[in-house]
Structures are given as structure tokens and as C-alpha cells.
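Sharing a chain and its predicted structure for anyone who wants a worked example. Both blocks are below, sequence first, C-alpha cells second.
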Amino acid sequence: MLLSSISLALVLASSALSSSVAPRAASASQVPAASTMKAVRIHAFGGVEQLKFEDAPRPVPAKGEVLVRVQAAGVNPVDWKAREGLLKSLAPTLPQILGYDVAGVVAELGPEVQGFKPGDAVFAYLALARGGGYAEFAIAKVGELALAPKKLSATDAAAVPLAALTAWQALVDTAKLESGQRVLVHGGAGGVGHFAVQIAKARGAYVYATAGEQNQAFLRELGVDRPIDYTSERFEEIARDVDVVLDTVGGETATRSYATLKRGGCFVSIVGPPDAAALAERGAKGNAILVQPSGKQLAELAALIDAGKLKPTVSAVLPLADVKRAHELSADGHVRGTLVLAVGGR
């Protein structure tokens, strides 16, 4: 669903803190062919027709930056929202290379970079004001980057960063989820939701999660204690006295969710500010969050993945040149897990 105007303001304010200007590069016509790469750029904001698969300047890493040869790039709802222009106040310069989740191999280190070396398999969530993931090469700041999970291919690793970081920052950093608590995750089969379910279970929580009829078996596979079919069941009649609600839907779902909270509970939204009055009435607290890049937290998530406690679900893998189809699928709102673009690099 589209970000509310208030939620969009959160996007712009929060992302600016962890962002920098786009990598410096001349236009493709000003550089030799060896300095170019294949990328998907937009030259104007709008529909999928604005996505252009073309040659673009290959970026050069500056101080504290790493050049990543991208093997795969994740596709998230924020990608097509950026394409439509919802983030243009944050990143108004055109053309732009979209994409914020990448997995690949370190190609080159900028000055004063430590902890990585050429050839390392890495993954990252790139700041919203910079992006650059839909390309054969992308710039990542050292603080955004982590060694990729050893058990995952680049395709699977690219499905992790933004969604898993969102779930982690919502449940662990914001809600302070503890073992034995009860959690209600809305959209449990989606990108953020399916990671949230697994993180909650890894921390010893009892988990309720909502999804459509076609995803009930998938929720059980993820470890959900009580799957809820929102098309035939009222979740507020099933999930009661929960400690944490994670709202990935908003609207009526959010309004009905306040009744599920116990006194002192926590409501965390990734789609807009919660209703302060409704929370106060129940003696609960609430927060709206926007995910922030964090290489340190990605390393923690990689450890969970390698320990077998967390697993990404990739719903489809498309070639970079088929990015228009990927955006259409994402905007449809019924993706199980995450979509990924196969890039390859040169």
C-alpha cells in the first residue's frame, strides 16, 4: 500500500541521516566503454515504462566505500514507490539507479576501508537517498555492508537485507521482544512478515500471524503457532492480550489491532504512525519505524541464517532486464517472501 503523507515524511527525514549523494560519475557519453556497466535507470518519475535497461557509468568508491560487483538485487515495495516519485524530495537528481538490496562480491575498496577485501561475498541494504542496486556494480558504505551468510546463494542473500532489518529493528530494537511473549504479525507471508515470524520464534515468542487462505500452510512452515486467515477469521477474536503487534498493513487492520494488545503492550508500524489515543486508552505504547542500514545487524542476521534459525523465501527470480515485470508483481501486493533480480556483473 502507498505510504501516507506522514509516513513519507518519516522516510525522508530518517533516510537523510544515513545517506549521501549519489556516487560521482560522468555521463555515459563522457567515459570510455570499459568504465560503463549495464543498469536499470529512470530518467523521469512515473510508471514501469520509465525503467530503462541501458549502459550507465560505473561508479568509483570514495573514502569509506566499497564497490560491489552485484550478482543479485532484491525488489521491495519501496522500489516502485521511489520510481513513482514518492522519494523525489530525498533524491531528486535524475537519472537514478533504483534498488536498495544487493548481494555480490567485493570488486574494489575505497581509501581507508577495513574489514573487507576483494573477492569477499557480501550483502547490503543501501541508503534510500542513494540506491544503485539495479546495476552490475554498486557502491556500499562500509557501515551498510556485511559478509554474506555462508549457507545462502547470492540470489537468496539479496532477499534478506531490507526486509529482515525491518523485522529486526521493529521487534528487537523497538519492541524489545522477550522469550515467552505473544506477538501478532500482520502480513506474515510477506517480505517483512515472514522474517518477523522467524525472528520472533528464534527469540522464544508465541506467534500469531495473518495471511490469506493460500498462505496458511506457509505460515505453519515458518513456525507460526496460530495462523489466522484474515479472509474468514477476525484476528481480534483470536489474538488476545498480545505483548507486541507488528503492523505491515495499516488502515482498518491497524484500527482493529489495538484491541488485541495487553496493558503495557507495544504496537509497531512500518506503514504510518499509530493512533496515540487508542494506545493510551489501553495503556500501551506505539512507534512507527523506518528501517536504517546496518552492517552490524546484517552480520547478526547472517549468523541466524547460518545457524538454521532464519531463512529467506524468494518468490521469483527475474533477469535484470525484466525489472518492469518485477515491479508489477511487487505492486500487486501478493508476493510471498521477496522478489529478486539476477544481475551477474562483469
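Comments welcome. Residues 1-33 have pLDDT under 50 and may be disordered.
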